[in-house]
């Protein structure tokens, strides 16, 4: 469902944007690696934090997980994700969207049986989102 194919020479920063946190992942070639999370604030602060993370990771484009319903239609959360994507685009960031259905469930399965801090699931979901984008 990616809007454009991934370029293996581009470093992407993936975002799993939940109402409370944003999980991060970064690409190296065709592989995705977790890069932590942040607690969300105001939209303007979130945009600045994403841009700072992009600079830190030397990422040039963003991949955002788009939460669709099982029937493929956008969820309420998808509208919030698109609002962040729109704000990032206004700030000059190239933004791609990736269908993120079931990524949280899948990431949760991977983390079962071990303690996890709040936000670790968001980071693991960002890794899944980015890996799906890279494989599309």
Automatic annotation (TrEMBL):
Known EC number: 3.1.-.-
CDD domains according to UniProt: YqgF
Protein's cellular compartments: Cytoplasm
Domain of life from the UniProt record: Bacteria
YqgF/RNase H-like domain location: 10-107
Entry-linked InterPro entries: RNaseH-like_sf, YqgF, YqgF/RNaseH-like_dom, YqgF/RNaseH-like_dom_sf
Catalytic class of the enzyme: hydrolase
Pfam families: RuvX
Swiss-Prot/TrEMBL keywords: Cytoplasm, Hydrolase, Nuclease, Ribosome biogenesis
SMART domains: YqgFc
Family label: Belongs to the YqgF HJR family.
Function: Could be a nuclease involved in processing of the 5'-end of pre-16S rRNA.
NCBIfam families: RNAse_H_YqgF
Protein name in the entry: Putative pre-16S rRNA nuclease
Organism: Deinococcus roseus
């Amino acid at each position: 469902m990616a809007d454009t194919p991934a370029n293996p020479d581009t470093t992407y920063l993936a975002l799993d944007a939940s109402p409370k946190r944003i999980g991060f992942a970064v690409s190296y070639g065709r592989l995705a690696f977790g890069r932590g999370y942040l607690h969300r604030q105001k939209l303007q602060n979130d945009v600045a934090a994403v841009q700072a993370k992009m600079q830190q990771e030397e990422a040039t484009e963003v991949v955002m997980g788009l939460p669709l319903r099982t029937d493929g239609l956008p969820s309420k959360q998808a509208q919030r994700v698109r609002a962040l994507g729109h704000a990032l685009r206004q700030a000059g960031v190239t933004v791609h969207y990736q269908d993120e259905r079931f990524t949280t469930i899948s990431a949760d399965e991977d983390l079962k049986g071990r303690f996890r801090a709040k936000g670790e699931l968001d980071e693991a979901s960002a890794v899944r989102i980015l890996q799906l984008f890279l494989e599309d």
